Amino acid sequence: MSWKRLLLVSLLFLILATGLFYYLLPNIFNPLRLDQIPDGAYVVPWMQPSASFEQLREETLVRGTFDTDVAMANALKINMTFRINMWDGTTRVIPSTVYLGHDSQYLYVGGKFVGMYSNPDSDANSSAPECFQVLFDVANKGVLQTPESGSMVGVTVRVPDDTFWGWQYHDVVWVYEGNVYKRMIWMPADNYYSGGFNDSLKDEACGYENYTGTITMLFSRFLRVDNAQVNALQMKPGERWVMGFLFELWYQKVLDNRVDGWPQKTFGAWSSNSSWWPKMVIDLTNPPSTYPGSNATTNPNGPSF
Known about the structure:
It contains four helices and 13 strands. By secondary structure, it is α+β, with helices and mostly antiparallel strands. The protein has two domains: 1-31; 35-283, Immunoglobulin-like (Sandwich). The strands form two sheets. Strands 1, 5, 6, 7, 8, 11, 12 and 13 form an eight-stranded mixed sheet that branches. Strands 2-3-4-10-9 form a five-stranded antiparallel sheet. A hairpin with a 5-residue loop joins strand 2 and strand 3. The longest helix is centred in the first third of the chain and has 27 residues, at 3-29. 34% of the residues are buried.
């Protein structure tokens, strides 16, 4: 073999070896997380809503609400009843359904909460929201560690006419609060971190049906987002995560929220013990080519309706 041919072969081998090294290096030092699915875990299915968020918002303009059972027909549906002890000693019993689904980019979370009506702390001059949040033990260690991750949606019902007024969304984070509580608590990320960050919300739709006092909501949150210092839920394509999770529902009032939780009543602000939380599975290892109930195809940039 001539020296020119040897040099060419050596150069090609070097290029191939370098490319292979840079391809394998991230997977060697940062391997994909592939958790084993435990018995009894809630496996979130691949799905997309049957209508776009824009269509759902247009429906709320006509009807005040939208049908979560139709919009999230192929989601995992978890039924529960929240019992919230109110300030006057009464208890509001709220039959509820939470809907969960995901595609390659987003976790979809829907909710239907029957009999909430307006917050008793509201009056004709000011309105306090009713809030739902989902919290994650992202590392699934049974002990909460900063920052963890969660989403909170607040829906405000206007009084005295008992109509939908507006909504708000916050990423929530498990951090030390040094002003009032002086301990670790769940708090809105934008209240804690003022350095600028991209929140996990992609899109939303919320509504209210005043005859039954039913709040409906649906939002999508990124499974991965850039510049997310306060967001520990950062999945890579091809990963499978098992996480502890908790739902909470409450009526907001300064320093005295009326709260209930599922699967049991808890005040997430007061304990870092998440060992008893149920397990949620998000599996990105085998994306489908189509989604049941939707004409959208798998799209790395999210759903296309």
